[in-house]
Amino acid sequence: MKAHNKFQLDIWGFITLSVLVLYGCFLIYPLGNLMKQAVYNAETGVWTLDYFVKFFSKNYYFTTLFNSFKVSLAATFFSLALGAPLAYIYTIYEIKGKAILNIGIIIASMSAPFIGAYSWILLLGRSGVITTFFKNMNIETPTIYGFFGILFVLTLQLFPLVFLYVRGALKNIDSSLIEASQSMGCRGVKLFAKIIMPLIVPTLLASGLLVFMRSFADFGTPMLIGEGYRTFPVTLYNEFISEVGGDDGFAAAIAIIAIMITTVVFLLQKYIGSRKAFSMNSLHPIEAKKITGIQNIIVHIVAYIPVCIAILPQLYVFYTSFKNTKGMIFVEGYSFNSYVSMFDKLGRSIQNSIIIPLLALIAIILLAVLISYLVVRRKNTLTNTLDIISMIPYIVPGTVVGISLLTAFNQKPLLLSGGILIMVIALVIRRLPYTIRSSVAILQQIPMCIEEAAISLGTPKMKAFFKVTVPMMRAGILSGAILSWVTMISELSTAIILYTGKTKTLTVAIYTEVIRGNYGIAASLSTLLTLFTILSLLLFAKISKGKDISI
Amino acid sequence: MSKIIIKDAVKKYGDNVVVSGLNVEIGDNELFTLLGPSGCGKTTLLRMIAGFNSIEGGDFYFNEKRINDMAPEKRNIGMVFQNYAIFPHLTVRENVEFGLKNRKYDKALMTEETNKFLKAMQIDAFADRLPEKLSGGQQQRVALARALVIKPDVLLMDEPLSNLDAKLRLEMRRFIRKIQKEVGITTVYVTHDQEEAMAISDKIAVMKDGVIQHLGTPEDIYKRPKNAFVANFIGTSNFVNAKLKAGKVCFSDEYEISIEALKDKKDQDLVVSVRPEEFVIVQNDQVGIRGIIKDTSYLGMNTHYFIELSEDNTVEVIQESADALIPDNTPISLQVKSHKINIFDERGSENLLRCDSFESA
Questions:
Q1: Number of Cβ pairs < 8 A linking chain A and chain B
Q2: CB burial class (10 A; 0-12, 13-18, 19+) of residue A420?
Q3: Mind giving me the DSSP string for A142-160?
Q4: Which of A89, A201, A226, A535 is the most exposed place for a label (fewest CB within 10 A)?
Q5: Are A117 and A341 in contact (CB under 8 A)?
Q6: In the structure, what pLDDT confidence band is assigned to residue A424 with cuts at 50, 70 and 90?
Q7: What confidence score (pLDDT) does residue B360 get?
Q8: Which of A2, A447, A459 sits opposite B85 (nearest CB)?
Q9: E-state strands within chain B
Q10: Are A261 and A347 in a shared domain?
Q11: Nearest CA in chain B to A451
Q12: Is A171 helix (H, G, I), strand (E, B) or coil?
């Protein structure tokens, strides 16, 4: 039955309006405000395109955007090129220790990117362990700084996302398709290129988009290892934060340009994706087969190396957290000294790193459930609008969300800056699109007649939703929520803009310690964060009972 | 226990009119079936009675109570869905109790009623299991128990057997019929399976394009279908062209029969519908519609012959199996059992043999 509902001001109509008002307050207004700043000079009181002219006329600024675009595109390409074939190999071959490798990949994808960056500095930086090792043998190692460094770190950080997406898609391909094509003489690489690839194109596009958005918006990595290679989030941050020479209006203009780019990429992806979508449902998923001999060894090497490299920074950070430090360098011997001095630096950051994401999580779950219900079951013009608005944050980089909130709410009567609330709001806005998408997918799986059955048995509509539909969605929502939780505790790009001494989070603490060169403390803080992440993922595995992770 | 009266029902999706001006009256304790091909509006009408589809025009009554604007949860209906719609997170017992809880039943009474229905549906052994472990037939019984335990005024069933395998379908339809009579409840049953409809119903409404083509008892519908569509949809019918000349029905090959009821009708072209068992195969140059046997299926008790009358008309004929089958490619002639066949006007829209005495039956 197609629903052609007209808007009614019943309880759901009221919820629609309330959610729209919330979005209006905390997304549309701040972004609109930002847009205004970009074209309005507050000192002279004139409407102007000067900021945009300045941006495009000065090579210095224009390059940053181009750099961002270049490095994101490259990272997307390499992540796909590494993640997709790896997922295919994992699906068709039996690999020893697959379960452990899987956990490794998930941890690698879930950790904060800048921790990877800083760990690679310790390994491959100017006085890094590997660099020094080779230097002693008079061998030049490639530099970790600049374009290649960012590309390297981002690819290692993000290919696991592609891997997880593609593995999920491959599970939906029926093995009979493979057998059919083999019976017609198409096998091996040709089979992958002719049959598998076309079928997973929508997945590749979706994961590619995600990788692009993440690398385009990533602040921590280029900040730490970019050095001369300026990308837009760093420039934006500097323009906005720096007390001398910074210009809010100009920062706003940069933000608007960045949003335009991500919007174009997003629409392009949607356009191509919608033309290549297939619906697949496999009765007999592909089974991994056992191979022997030299082929088996090669497959194992290919399967292990990328995962080991991806997880290496986490392991190294863990290792260095137990090393003795003297000032900024690690010295001989092991102790818990870093952990001891960590507690002096912690302040409230542990509590903050729990309380802020937790509050955000509660709001996200509630809103996602309501919005997904409106979008799926109460289709009308207004809920369609809501659907579109709720996807906006997907294309707005975190730094931009942070800046727009800060500029919108930094004076009375709308004074929120400096408090916990603004950080919660920022997280809610950023994570909500993902949770809404997954809730919508879950809800679409639940037939409407289940709810109708409850109504026919005398349950009012609202009660039927909460007594029947919500319990059926619970497992899916909960596992989605944990993934949101994991990404929120390692979130940096909005927190770095919004935090104050009181609301400092663990990631901000790690970042500041890295910047100050307190690598020992940074390592112990990072280990703490990773521990948090792993615990959350274990909880996820327990709740979702081995279902796939989709971010 | 309710009569259901529907007057001038209209259903529109946007500008698309699905049901227009439909009238029907469903009697107390009747098992009433809405039968028709997919897209005929039968499920739409059922959901209008349930309250899940909006009503664009007309009046719906349960007895004297107009229900158009009543919320579905207040209509006191029991509904059984095509895919059962069992709550997967509740046990069988909790599923059955669900409606009683909404009605604030006393705990002891609730357990008693639930047990009664679990037993009647022969699912008491699974009471504390989660439904995902149950077979399709068992799930269907849970759905039925859940719908009946609340003592609804009407029971609505939307293709309840279509997800079951053939054997279970036969078993369940007898079961549903039995329970419906025992409980004594007005039931509206939707199906596209004419055999199922025949087997289960007190009355059937054959629908097409949102219009009831024929409303009657299974026997009436089978024997004297109101139009060619109904004749074709219910059971198997062969269609043969003929002409009415001076009160006689003239087929091809100079085969004629006279029918009392058509004596005074004016000359016209006819469409004659003959069921496979209403043909008689004759040989030895007797008069009849000539044809050639093209194919034969021997099914034990009966034998089905497929006989080519002309290039574009092959008919199916069922005969009680004789000692020897007639071999393929044998030329034969066909006569009809004139008291059983149905005769329609040229367009197949009116059965010329129906008179008003049938209508009131």
A1: 68
A2: middle
A3: --SSSHHHHHHHHHHHHHH
A4: A535
A5: no
A6: very high
A7: 42
A8: A447
A9: 4-13, 16-26, 31-35, 57-62, 65-66, 77-80, 154-158, 186-191, 203-208, 211-216, 238-245, 248-250, 256-258, 268-274, 279-282, 289-298, 302-310, 313-320, 331-336, 342-345
A10: no
A11: B85
A12: helix
Assess if residue A518 is contained within a domain. Answer: yes
Residue A55 lies in a domain: no
Task: Select the residue from B44, B73, B146 to test the A interface by mutation, using most A Cβ atoms within 10 A.
Answer: B73
Cα three-residue angle B64-B68-B71, rounded to 5 degrees? 110
Indicate whether A1 and A73 sit together in one domain. Answer: no
Task: Tell me the mean pLDDT in the region A457-477.
Answer: 85
User: What mean pLDDT do residues B217-223 have?
Assistant: 93
Mean model confidence pLDDT for chain A:
84
Question: Does residue B218 register a pLDDT over 70?
Answer: yes
Report the helix count and the strand count for chain A, using DSSP H and E. Answer: 26, 4
Q: List the structure tokens of B20.
A: 């227009």
Query: Which residue of B18, B43, B52 to mutate against A (max A Cβ within 10 Å)?
Result: B52
Show the tokens assigned to A188: 């091996």
Residue A144 lies in domain: 62-320
Q: What is the pLDDT of residues A227-257, one digit of tens each?
A: 878 888 888 888 887 755 557 788 888 888 8
Radius of gyration of chain A from its Cα atoms, rounded to whole angstroms: 24
Neighbours of A18 (CB within 10 A): 11
- Evaluate if residue A333 carries a pLDDT over 90: no
Q: Is B134 on the interface with A (CB under 8 A)?
A: no
pLDDT above 80: residue B192? yes
Q: How many domains does chain A have?
A: 2
User: Rounded to an integer, what distance in angstroms lies between the CA atom of residue A306 and that of residue A240?
Assistant: 37
Query: Is residue B334 predicted with pLDDT exceeding 80?
Result: yes
Residue owning tokens 């590619």: A208
Ordered by start, the domain boundaries in chain B are 4-228, 238-360
What is the pLDDT averaged over residues A208-213?
90
Contact flag B147-A458 (C-beta cutoff 8 Å)? no
Q: Has residue A325 been placed in a domain?
A: no
Answer yes or no: do A361 and A504 share one domain: yes
The span from the CA of A426 to the CA of A551, in Å, is 18
Decide if pLDDT at B213 tops 90. yes
Q: Measuring CA to CA, which residue among A536, A551, A544, A529 is closest to residue A113?
A: A529
User: What's the pLDDT band for A305 if we cut at 50, 70, 90?
Assistant: very high
Give A365→chain B minimum CA distance, Å.
Answer: 20
Say yes or no: domain B238-360 is CATH 2.40.50.140. yes
Q: Residue A447, Cβ neighbours under 10 Å: how many?
A: 14
Same domain, A306 and A422: no
Residue type, A225: I
Could you say which of B74, B85, B147 has the minimum Cβ distance to residue A449?
B85
Comparing alpha-carbon positions, the chain A residue that sits nearest to B14 is A4
| A255 located within any domain | yes
Query: Looking at residue B355, what is its pLDDT?
Result: 67
Q: Which residue of B has its CA nearest to A450?
A: B85
Q: How far is CA A304 from CA A158, A159, A466, in A?
A: 17, 14, 46
Determine, for residues B85 and A450 on separate chains, whether the beta-carbon distance falls below 8 Å: yes
Pairing of strands B31-35, B238-245: unpaired
**Between B355 and A464, whose confidence is greater?**
A464
Verify that A121 and A10 share a domain, yes or no: no
CATH code for position A169: 1.10.3720.10
Same domain? A185 vs A292? yes
Give the closest of A450, A454, A456 to B77, CB-based. A456
Classify domain B4-228 by CATH number.
3.40.50.300
Element (H, E) at A108: helix A98-110
Give dist(CA A122, CA A313) in Å, integer. 9
- State how far the Cα of A36 lies from the Cα of A255, in Å rounded to an integer: 12
- Report pLDDT for A91: 87
State residue B154's pLDDT score.
92
Single pTM value for the model: 0.76
